[in-house]
Amino acid sequence: MIQVLEEKIKTIKGATVEDNKFCISVHFRRVDEDDINTLQEMVNSIVEAYPNFRISGGKKVMEIRPCIDWDKGRALEYLLDTFGFNNASDFLPLYIGDDKTDEDAFKVIRHMGRGYPIIVSSVPRETKALYSLRDPDEVMSFLRRLARWKKSLGIP
């Protein structure tokens, strides 16, 4: 499917296809507004030929995923379980995301009753995150401060 998508959408300037291993992303952040509907119609018509896949939307992206019950929240639960962090008292999850596809992970952290679900957005919006940062620069500043704080406590 990825080759078909790449071949078909190359007529739309700014559109890109990314193989994310578990899904295919068609990015349209750099596509002219007048061409977005055409691109979406192309992608929809291609995916219709693959009944075991579905399209989900994100921030200027169409994600083509297998029809399975899996999202970022379930991926987070899987990782926490796999690494033995589900019941660890010395572990505090931190999840930073900027897309509606991150909402499932925010929900998992809130359900855990501990941790920091953080949305990155320059405008207020409805979210399951409890905290927010404005942009990637603020995320970097936050992470640097967190690292300095950890180092000041003598934690390796």
UniProtKB/TrEMBL annotation:
Pathway: Glycan biosynthesis; trehalose biosynthesis. Keywords: Hydrolase, Stress response. Its cofactor is a divalent metal cation. It is an enzyme of class 3 (hydrolase). GO terms for biological process: trehalose biosynthetic process. One of its GO terms (molecular function) is trehalose-phosphatase activity. Removes the phosphate from trehalose 6-phosphate to produce free trehalose. Trehalose accumulation in plant may improve abiotic stress tolerance. This is Trehalose 6-phosphate phosphatase. The lineage of its organism: Eukaryota, Viridiplantae, Streptophyta, Embryophyta, Tracheophyta.
